[in-house]
Amino acid sequence: MKRKGDRLALVFFLSPALFLYGLFVLYPSIQALWMSMYQWRGLGEKTWIGFGNYERMMSDAIFINAMKITGKYILFQVPLVLIISIGLALTIANLLKSRWLNTYRATVFFPYILPGVAIAMLWATIFNPVSGMLNGLLNAIGLEQYTTEWLGRTETAFGSVVFVNVWSMVGFYTVLILAAILNIPEELTEAAEIDGAGKWQKSFYIILPLLKDVLQVVIVFTLINTLKIFEMPQLLTSGGPNRSTEPISLYIYEQAFQNFNFGYASALGVIFLILIFIASMLTLRLTRGEKV
Amino acid sequence: MKKVGMLFASILLLAGCNAPWASDSSGETGTENKDDQVTIEVMMFEGGFGSEWVKSSADAYMEQNENVSVEVIASPDIHQQLQTRFLSNDVPDLMVPGPSFDIMGVINDGKILGLDDYLEEDSYSGEEKWLDTFEQGQFNLKRDGKTLGIPTVFSSGYVWWYNEALFEENGWETPETWQDLYVLKDQAAEKEIPLFAVPGMHPGYYFNGIFIPLVERIGGKQAVLDAFNLKEGAWTSEAFAEAARESQKMVEEGLFLEGTFGLSHTEAQTLFFQNQALFATAGTWLEGEMSDIIPEDFKLRAMNQPIWEGSDAEFLAPVSTGWGGAWYVTEDSENKEETVQFLKFLSSSEEVKKMVESRGLASVVKNTEDAISSDALKSALTVMQEAEGSYAPTAINDSYPEMTNNMINIYQSLMLNEITPEEFTQRAEEFAAQVRDDSSIQKMEFSW
């Protein structure tokens, strides 16, 4: 009887969250799946076309390009965020553990608390090819041959967007890793010191292996956030020049709200959902390994 | 049982009172019966042109017509509200949907009222036909011969803006031919000023302000019409090929401000107003949009694109299609007659004059030119008046948005020298063929 009562309580307490989840996540997802079978402008009559939208996707060069660009973002952004966050966290922990820790921690975390629009405006101003700080600096130090239209040229736009994304993301992950480092029992590092390990030896042979769990979390989050990347390409380059910075999410937005192809956008959304699901499953599977 | 019977009779009676046929039986409609209170709901896009003039006209109308209440909802994001309203079949009576709303979608769906019969009626003042109160140059919001939208604000297409004071000061002439541009370029180079500041982040500004006008100047109206009407081979025609070659040449010859392809539209326009470039391409909204930063001694003037030497193409002026900025009465409005009556009032020269005076706008309503105080706007109107006719470089935006986006993207690649002019025209033709061959896309027949 007690078990039944527990179950009822469980259902009772979970039901509000389940209801909201169903209403705002499950229902729209199922609706999107249903809508992906139609040709629909977002208004008026829907025409059933079965898997027509999915067939179109296979030969849509722009969709294939958006997939590649998303892959490129993952390829560059995930390792960069990971490496820079670890590097910063280790540096702060090693060099400034006593006096300036909080100052550096707050400074590194600062970009993360800025709104995306503010970050985009800030960097768009810096990248401004005519009056921006970056070209001004390059000119001032005699490197004028490197000045360019950072967000307007295919060669530099992608790198610029990745840079801004990484800049805005590393603060959070650095603090996360730093917290994990500070939680490592001091006896372990002291023992290593007694055995003659230097600062970097301690970092590589003692601290890093103990960070496995938190690093897995960092990878999962960075991967999923990079897959969903939308804000910076939209605000900095609108996906251009010539779609060289346009990830899938931006292409979905373009199809739905600029081209008024809501059916096709829904089909793209379904594929996008599956991709995120696979990425989440893969990373969750990886993180299920034994603890150190 | 008796009570149940009485209740049933009462319900029938009440239902009868509310039923649509109830007023018909008395022979009175909402307009005729002055005791009936009518509410007209207006939803409008609020951009650079504002909405105060509509609210003020609504107040004036309500004073004159006590049985009518006009509710105006204005927002820059009105398209989002409109979409949900149309989806739930709860449409406003009158609307200006703005540039982000799928107006073609609702037109295809038969949700917009045809206005031709009303346009044949008397205008609000009763002095002439309502249709005759409009300048006809921009009065072309028709689908299958049916007039659907009423434009009130005059909006030119992408013309070229320049600082007349700067030209006078240096003794420069505005270019009459495209080839003159290169002479002007050399003259301005002495002052280290390039010709164009364009927003590379939004290539539509120069696709519509340089490329399509260039095609028109080289191949004439028909070349543009053939392309917009998706005629096979039109996008690879000589006019398009030449315009593509010329576009790339303009970049190579340094006609554009260095760094311009990395700028947003406000950044490019700001540099133009700082005299760091001679021309900016934009519509008549430019002055209102940048009013905060225009220097006092800046004489903002509009000019038509120069002619192409050796071509006998018509000298036309670009106009905005204006689909998003026009007034529409919805087919499902329950107060069509009253709404049209209010629209007649709103588009009467007396009311429009107030708008022209207060907002510094120009209008397509006749006899309102005198109220224009802006010299910049007057010069844009002069561009229209001095041309041999008009054409709409942005006409495909509403009808084939996906194709237009794709065209603009590859035009940007052309300007960045990433593709050759031949590749550009070839790809443009492929995009046009995709639309041509897709039977699910409703085709539009353009004619100017």
From TrEMBL, chain A:
It is found in: Cell membrane. It comes from the Bacteria. PROSITE patterns: ABC_TM1 (PS50928). Residues 67-283 form the ABC transmembrane type-1 domain. The chain crosses the membrane at residues 7-30, 73-96, 108-127, 157-182, 203-224, 262-284. GO terms for cellular component: plasma membrane. Gene3D superfamilies: MetI-like (1.10.3720.10). InterPro entries: ABC_transporter_permease, MetI-like, MetI-like_sf. Pfam families: BPD_transp_1. GO terms for biological process: transmembrane transport. The keyword Transport applies. Belongs to the binding-protein-dependent transport system permease family. This is ABC transmembrane type-1 domain-containing protein. It comes from Jeotgalibacillus soli.
UniProtKB/TrEMBL annotation, chain B:
It holds the Pfam family SBP_bac_1. Its main location: other. The keyword Membrane does not apply. The keyword Ubl conjugation does not apply. It comes from the Bacteria. It is found in: Cell envelope. Gene3D superfamilies: Periplasmic binding protein-like II (3.40.190.10). Coiled coil: none annotated. Keywords: Signal, Transport. Belongs to the bacterial solute-binding protein 1 family. This is ABC transporter substrate-binding protein. It comes from Jeotgalibacillus soli. The lineage of its organism: Bacteria, Bacillati, Bacillota, Bacilli, Bacillales.
